[in-house]
Amino acid sequence: MSFIKVDETSDFSFHNLPYGIFSTPDDPKHRIGVAIGDQILDLSVIKSLFRGPVLSKHQDVFDQPTLNACMALGYEAWREARRTLQVLLSANESTLRDDVSLRSRAFVHQSTATMHLPADIGEPLPISGLFSLCRLIYNRDYTDFYSSRDHATNVGIMFRGKENALMPNWLRLPVGYHGRASSIVVSGTKIHRPSGQMRPDPMKPPVFGPSKQLDIELEMAFFVGGGNKIGEPIPINKAHEHIFGMVLMNDWSARDIQAWEYVPLGPFLGKNFGTTISPWVVPMEALLPFVEPNPIQDPVPLPYLQHNDAYTFNIHLLVSLKGQGIAEASTICKSNFKYMYWTMKQQLAHHTVNGCNVRPGDLLASGTISGPDPESFGSMLELSWRGSKSIDLGQGETRTFLEDGDEVTITGYCQGDGYRVGFGSCIGTILPALQH
Question: How far apart are CA 356 and CA 230, in angstroms?
Answer without folding.
Answer: 6
